Amino acid sequence: MGSPTFSVGLVQMACGSVRTDNVARAFEGVRKAVGLGAQVVCLQELFAHEYFCQVEDSNCFDLAETIPGPLTEEGSRLAKQCGIVLVLPIFEKRAAGLYHNSAAVIDATGELLGVYRKMHIPDDPQYFEKYYFAPGDSGYRVFNTQFAKLGVLICWDQWYPEAARLSTLGGAELLLYPTAIGWVPGDPLDVREGQQDAWSTVQQAHAITNGVYVAAVNRVGHEDSQSGGLDFWGRSFVCDPTGLLLASGSDTHADVVVANCSREALEEQRRAWPFLRDRRIDSYAGLSKRFLEHTESTPSRSTK
Is 129 tagged catalytic? Predict the structure, then answer.
């Protein structure tokens, strides 16, 4: 990693019901990103399938794959062929009855460097992920790849500043967020716009407060379900350590987003806004608690 720059590509796509078709479209997008100069390419959350978490259906567990397994083997061949780092989200079967929402990180040699397992698991209408996924248990990993040091987090993780900070403290230069986020049909326009703005704002804030590049890749298009489906809003983006958007994708159709990243910009931003320097690590013990119960103290009376 002696180069002063590295480049990141995001493959945003609509998913259908056939795994092989989804994988083929995703890998076609990877090749397009490589043609545009990407060295690190990230696919969207659970890209091999439609977003099955809209319903609780035990048959969906049959979609899961082991790591290593068929999908990571396909990804390894592609990464080696293209000479890129590939972040490959996958519905992982870790053991009988134990499943994760995961991302495999494959180096440019085709070597499987490791796996990140989603730590924060949502449970909301049409996002019934707690039914399918156990939370990750290996912490916030940073992967030292051929081109950059990557912190990989997944979707719901993107709302938690603790996850971004711990990844940064582990040495990450780039935070990657494979994502599947959208609207419930019928949501009014102001609600849609507010949710979309909050989504991008919080991730740009992670870039600013940690002095890192952030890249989020989201699926796009409508996916139906018994409860009406979801409209995924796309808008995959890359921002720099100041929060400035470098590149962004469509909100209506498949897209490939590529941006160049500078290590000099990382250094300059952290010198100008030295948040890591000024952290009061002696004052953060409460972060390990679920909630802090505060009671009003009664002033002591003098005995004099």
Answer: no
